[in-house]
Amino acid sequence: MSFTKFKSKIEEGDLVMAYLSRTHIKPIIVKKGDTLNTRFGTFPHDSMIGLSYGSQLLTPKGRGFIYLLYPTPELWTLSLPHRTQIVYTPDSSYIVQRMGVIPGSRVIEAGTGSGSFTPAFVRPIAPTGKLFTYEFHKERYEQALSEFKQHGLQEYLVCTNRDVCADGFDITGAQIDAEAVFLDLPSPWEAIPHLKSVITHKTEARICCFSPCVEQVLKTVTALQENGWTKIEMTEVSSLLWESRKVMVRELDDAIARLKDVKKRQLEGIEFMKKMAVKYGSNKQAKIRKPRSKNRDRGFNPFGKGFHIIEGDENYDWFDVSKEQKEIKTHTSYLTFAIYVPQLVVKDQIIPKQDDQGDERKPDCQ
Ligand code: SAH
């Protein structure tokens, strides 16, 4: 099992994504003798071993089922244990593409946080690239490191417990030479001055800083300009989920009948409240003091929901609609991108950097 390669059969020690529903995916490490307890039933891990990824697994009693999915960075982001705010796929996919992260790329990430973005960096850089990820919170660092080992990511990354704002990114004995830098830190402007010694000076290097507040963006832009970064641009990714569903066709007569019903219920409710007021003294008391007997007559509930009709019920007419829904699982932040163009020396002549020409230095913040 690995985020970077595919295999078809589940083996002991694998990370499997147990898919219960669209909003509930549980990552498990398969271990003989263990069980997965869900609201659909109990699933012994032994029954998973040898199955193909993607299989549907029934409970021993055959009442409930789950799907056993192959781990991907996208599923990991949806299911991981949160220790911090995390980066979601709408942002990570755009950032990876925008920073040109490809097989062989060398990338810096700080902080590691819950390790949501880490597999999404490792997948494109494998098998020859390297990710240098930094986290200053000791427990988060240890937790992330143990997950990276369990998930077979350690051969593609170096995870360091370090405050990068105070102590920078240099690692003794390692030539980092990063082409891409991703900073998800509260104060990226304090880390930016430390980057010069660890980014590549052979080609251009790209950076993305992920910040929820525009005040952070302003400080980041200033630090980028002061440290020789150019083509500064701020972007925000806004993701929309489209949902398709059925809406009941309602006749005018139905609407009139419904209005009459509401009116009737209201009158009954008012009568009920009046009765309670007589019994308990006032409307306010009637609400607070309820009869205690278990077998009490609860009376008519004017605010009750009535009976529930399941979407698509054959006894009613329906039509299909599609509507957009704001994607909930995305923590929107401002993405500040920039590039660093090294000065090239050709036959003792210094080729000017791009930002020395024209007005390229102006950030495109909007
Ligand atoms: N991108 C991560 C979330 C990062 S949250 C993910 O998708 O899971 C920010 C992390 O940066 C936190 O874990 C915090 O402890 C760490 N951090 C904050 N300041 C830091 C610093 N100066 N050096 C290293 N890590 C830092």
Give a description of the structure.
The protein is α/β, with parallel strands linked by helices and 366 residues long. The protein is built from 9 helices and 17 strands. It has a 7-stranded mixed β-sheet with strand order 9-8-7-10-11-15-12, with helices on both faces. Strands 2-1-6-5 form a 4-stranded antiparallel β-sheet, covered by helices on one side. A two-stranded antiparallel ribbon has the order 3-4. The longest helix is centred in the last third of the chain and has 29 residues, at 252-280. The protein is extended, with a radius of gyration of 29 Å. It starts with 14 loop residues before the first strand and ends in a 15-residue tail after the last strand. Bound molecules: S-adenosyl-L-homocysteine. S-adenosyl-L-homocysteine (SAH) binds next to strand 8 and helix 5.
Task: Label this structure with key terms.
seven-stranded mixed sheet, single chain, alpha/beta, 9 helices, disordered C terminus
- Which word captures the global form? extended
Number of helices: 9
The poorly predicted ranges are: 288-305, 356-366
Class derived from helix and strand content: alpha/beta
The overall average pLDDT, rounded, is 86
Q: Give the ordered list of helices and strands.
A: EEEEEEHHEHEHEHEHEHEEHHEEEE
What order do the strands of the largest sheet run in, or round the barrel if closed?
Answer: 9-8-7-10-11-15-12
Which sheet architecture does the biggest sheet show? 7 strands, mixed
The beta-strand count equals: 17
| Proportion of residues in β-strands | 25-35%
Helical residues, percent: 25-40%
Q: What ions, cofactors and ligands are bound? A: S-adenosyl-L-homocysteine
Tell me the Rg in angstroms: 29 Å
Terminal residue distance: 43 Å
